[in-house]
Prior knowledge:
It contains 15 helices and 18 strands. The chain is an alpha+beta fold. The longest helix is centred in the first third of the chain and has 31 residues, at about 5-35.
Amino acid sequence: MTEEEKKAKQKAKKTAKAAEKAAKAAKKAANQAARGGGPVDAGPPIAMHTLGDEGTPAHGNFARITSEGKTGRVFTQVGDLNAGLVGANVWIRCRLFKTRAQGKSMCFTVMRQNFYTVQCTVIEADAVSRDMVKFSQSITPESIVDVFGEVVKAEVAACTQANVEIAVRKLYVVSKSNPLPITIEDLARSKAEATAKTLPFIEQDTRLSNRMLDLRTPANQAIFRTQSAVGQLFREALLGEGFTEIHSPKIIAGASEGGADVFTTSYFGNPACLAQSPQLYKQMGVNADLERVFEVGPVFRAEKSATHRHLCEFTGLDMEMSFKDHYHEVLAVLDKTFRYMFDGLRDKFAPLLKAVNEQYPYEPLQYLSPTLVLQYPEGIAMLNADGVEIGLYDDFNTAQEIRLGQLVKEKYKTDFYILDKFPLAIRPFYTMPDPNMEGYSNSYDIFLRGEEIMSGAQRIHEPEFLAERAISKGLDPEALKDYFNAFSYGAFPHAGGGVGLERVVMLYLGLNNIRKSSLFPRDPNRMTP
C-alpha cells in the first residue's frame, strides 16, 4: 500500500468516525425535539380528496399521494409571505425545520422552504384541538408538511419572514422524515458562530458524505441557485452577441487536448475516452459556418489533483468565434460576457448572495469597466519588483499566480483581470505565435480573485502550420490528422476559451473549496453519493 493510499484510508476512517459521532448526537437531538407527543404517525390518516369535506380532521397524515384527484388548493411561497398578506388565509408546503413546545397547549414551529423560513404557531383554541398541538409537537424535523392558517403580524428576528407568522388552523404531514444523522441547524452554522458559541461545526468530508442534507442549508440553496444564474447569464450574454449553442459528443476516440489525463472506456469493443474539452468540436462548429458557438456541458479530467480548485468532472462554459482582424475582438466579447454575468448577479440575485454571505462571509467582487488587460511581461515585472524570482518566459506556479492577483488588486483595485500574450513555449501547439513579440503567443488567461478561471487563445487555422507547430512540440502529425483535417476545407481565423462553472461560482462567492460549488463533487477520492 502506497503512502498516499494509507493517508486516504486514515482520512476515510476519520471521516466515518466523525459521521457516526454526529449521527448519534443528531438522533439524540431529534428525540428531544419530539418531546410532548408520540410518533408522527399517531395522527389520523387523511385522504387528500376529502380535504374540503365537512368533518375532515384539521390535522393528520396524508395517505399516499397518488394523484387521485385535484383539491383546488392554491399555495403561497414562504418567500412571498409579508405584511401585505396580514389577515389572509394561506396554504404553504414546506419542511418542518424546528419545533419548540410550550406545555401541552402551545407549539411554535419554524417552517422552511428553500432558504426562506417562517414561524407557525399552533395554539389550543376553538379551531385547534389539544390533540392537534400534540401532533405538531411530534413531527420529526425535515418532514414535509402542508400548513393552512392566517397570516398575522409578528416580530420573529430568527426567520427570514421576520414581520409575519402563521396562526395554524390545519396541519398535515405529507412525508415523514426519519431522525436525522446531522441537524440542518448544525450544517447551516458558520465556522465563526460555531467557534464563538462553542457549538458543533461540521467539516467538509462529513458534509459531502451527507450531501442530501447538506444541500438543504440556506447557503447551499443559494449557492446552487447562483450557479444556475451564472449559466443563465452566460447564455444570455452570448446569445445577445449572435452565438449559437451547440452540444458536442463526450465519448470520443482520442484525447481532446492531446494529454494522458483522460478517462478511458470501451465503445462497442473499440477504445474510447471521455472528452477533456469540447475544443475541437467548437472549432469545427465555427468552420461549419456557425461562426460563433458556445456550449455548457460536462468536462472530464483524470487528474490526480486533490487541490481546492480541481475536480475530475465539472461543467464547462466554452465559447469559440471567428474574427475579422485581431483576436482581441474575441477578448472584447469575453470581457463583455463576464461583466454581464457579474452585473447580473449583483443586480438581479442579491438575496442569493446575502444568504451565502451569512454562512460563508466574503468581500463583494471588485471589477473594472472595461476589464483590466495586462501583458504577460507586465505581470512578470510586477512579481519581480515584489521580490518573486521568475523569468520572462516561465510559467506561474499557484503561489505566484495568487501573489500576482494580490498585487493587481493593490495597484488597480480589481479582483478580475485578463493576462495577455503568454510565452509560446508554455502553450499548446495549436496556439498562434505572436507576430511582433518573439517567444510569445496570441493567448490569454482570465483571473478572478487571484486564480485562473479561463485559458484561451487564437487557434492556428492552417493545417500546414499546425503540422509544423506539432512537430516543434515533439508530436506526431499523423496521430493528429483528424484534427488537421478539420481545417483543410477553408477555415476562419478564430479564437475562444473555456471556463469551469464551479470555479467561477467558487471564486465569485469567495468560497475556499470548489467542492462547495459542485452539487455532487467528483475528485480522485470521491465517487459517491
